[in-house]
Amino acid sequence: MRHSPLRHLITVTMAVAFVAAVAACGSASPRALPQPDAGVVPAAPVPTTTTPSKAAPTTPTRKATHSSTSPPTVGNADRCVSVAPGDGFYEGGRVASAELETPTSRCTTISVSNVGDPTNPTDVCQTFLVAFWPLVDGSLTSTQPVTACGDNRTVLARNVPDNAHYIVLYDIDYLGQDVQFRIWH
Question: Could you tell me the CA-to-CA distances from 45 to 160, 164, 169 in Å, in that order?
Answer without folding.
Answer: 7, 10, 21
